[in-house]
Amino acid sequence: MANVVLIGMPGCGKSTIGVLLAKALKMNFLDTDAAFQNRQGRRLQEIIDEAGIDAFLQMEEECVLAIDVKNTVIATGGSVVYGEKAMRHLHEHGIVVYLKLPYDEIEKRLSNLDSRGVTLRQGQTLRDLYNERIPLYEKEADIVFDPGRMHIDETAQALKACMDDRMGEKK
Question: 0.90 cut: is pTM over it?
């Protein structure tokens, strides 16, 4: 089975939903942020602070390009959409799903911007980042999925049904 690749803003639930979706689809799960941190031996925020955003994005893309998995739900870092080669690689091996949440919900969920590893440039606000990324997520998405006000379990089940339909595995 092809991979299911989750993209979207930090805080939209890619990792949390990804774990539940992987269980529901009987697939493996991979969090690229965790793989990136393991590969670098340091936390995302440390990489940003020490190497800078541009170097961070390059390292993130290299990490994603090294991913060689099948039958896996992949939760990506929110900045993966800046890497054209990384996105091409993810598209070649899976279905890309954008988890779309409105700005006010993202803002509620992200109280720890200084330590979370979000690639905010000097003077850039979360709103600026949101506005910059939304067109990129929409451009890269094979499927745009808006969970609305669904609970996380409902979101995973709705996404499972969507994937079953998309992959032709109606159950």
Answer: yes
